[in-house]
Amino acid sequence: MSFSFSDHSHRRYNPLTNNYVLCSPHRAKRPWQGAEELAGKIEMPMYDPKCYLCPGNERAAGGHSNPKYQSTYIFENDFPAVQLSQPELAEDLLFEEGEEELVRLLKKKLMRVRSVQGNCYVICFSPNHSLTLPLMTRAEIVEVVQAWKDLYIETQRKAVQEKAPYSYLQIFENKGLAMGCSNPHPHGQAWCLDVVPTEVQHEFDNMAAYTKKNGSHLLGDYVALELAEKKRVVVANDSFVAVVPFWALWPFETLVIAKNHIASIEDFSEKNKEDLALILKCLTTKYDNLFKTSFPYSMGLHQAKLGATEEEKKNAWFHMHFYPPLLRSATVKKFCVGFEMLGEAQRDLTSEQAAARLQELDGETHYSSA
């Protein structure tokens, strides 16, 4: 018997995070008796008078109402995870009066804390309460991409010209109850911090190390490899390619990567915006068509930090991560527990198997309108 990637366990290296993923494709054959998500299509109205994101409605915190916006709309989050104004964190706050010198010494070694400042935004994709990205037109998604670009440029301007405590803008979307989305109105978020978040910094460090070692960019080389092999490519156009990455953790995880070097969305041309909108619509339509359900996911943009130096821009490369939790059907979700929490990341089907499933799906006609 010879080794088969489709039948035998193996580990796959993720160069972006410098970690391994345990791949156990034979486990997908086991019977499932665990928890299942609720299935079925939920009909949404175009406008919900109780929704705090719909045009003209009062927001969740009260005291403010949304304008009657006609396209993508951004406002500062009423319940921000980070704040611009807060008391200064004193260095000795962890220490208590009268505590033993040994405790104080150990705290200095083991307990490290720092203040963090920033701002958070809500990005309403559309005034239509019933839409999700796959149900929006390409023109409507272009407006979302433009809103992302405008927010990046504006926060960068504040960081550079006004010395605002902004270093990185993390734009993301949680879609669906399975991903903890608290409001079905189509929207995403953006958290702007005075530091680069840990996951993003790991990518910057590993991409820089790859360039130093190989004289080329990690994601540039990876795009060339995927386009040559075509095994894991889900959809591609002139500007972007969406793949199930070789090192994927989530069952139908995808990575949308700029084909050519683009440090951030600030550098997008009109063609780039159109192409990203097209690939997002196609990919998310395929997701919905996979299990005939509104497919949940967490999605986020990774790009250059705000006010990046030329060297930092060279190391950055615009890409987007999609992390969907569904494993076997609209009701069976993957959980990162047990070995994943105590050992290392693990998945139950190969990236090639997942890509093949997505490749064969229609990316233009949505199942609900077929």
TrEMBL record:
UDP-alpha-D-glucose binds at residues 27-30, 60, 77-78, 174, 180-182, 189, 334-335, 339-340, 346. GO terms for biological process: galactose catabolic process via UDP-galactose, Leloir pathway. Its EC number is 2.7.7.12. Binds 1 Fe cation per subunit. Binds 1 zinc ion per subunit. Zn(2+) binds at residues 51, 54, 129, 185. The keyword Lyase does not apply. The keyword Aminoacyl-tRNA synthetase does not apply. Residues 2-197 form the Galactose-1-phosphate uridyl transferase N-terminal domain. It comes from the Eukaryota. It catalyses: alpha-D-galactose 1-phosphate + UDP-alpha-D-glucose = alpha-D-glucose 1-phosphate + UDP-alpha-D-galactose. GO terms for molecular function: UDP-glucose:hexose-1-phosphate uridylyltransferase activity; zinc ion binding. Pathway: Carbohydrate metabolism; galactose metabolism. It is an enzyme of class 2 (transferase). Keywords: Carbohydrate metabolism, Galactose metabolism, Iron, Metal-binding, Nucleotidyltransferase, Transferase, Zinc. Fe cation binds at residues 203, 302, 319, 321. GO terms for cellular component: cytoplasm. Gene3D superfamilies: HIT-like. Pfam families: GalP_UDP_tr_C, GalP_UDP_transf. Belongs to the galactose-1-phosphate uridylyltransferase type 1 family. This is Galactose-1-phosphate uridylyltransferase. It comes from Australozyma saopauloensis. The lineage of its organism: Eukaryota, Fungi, Dikarya, Ascomycota, Saccharomycotina.
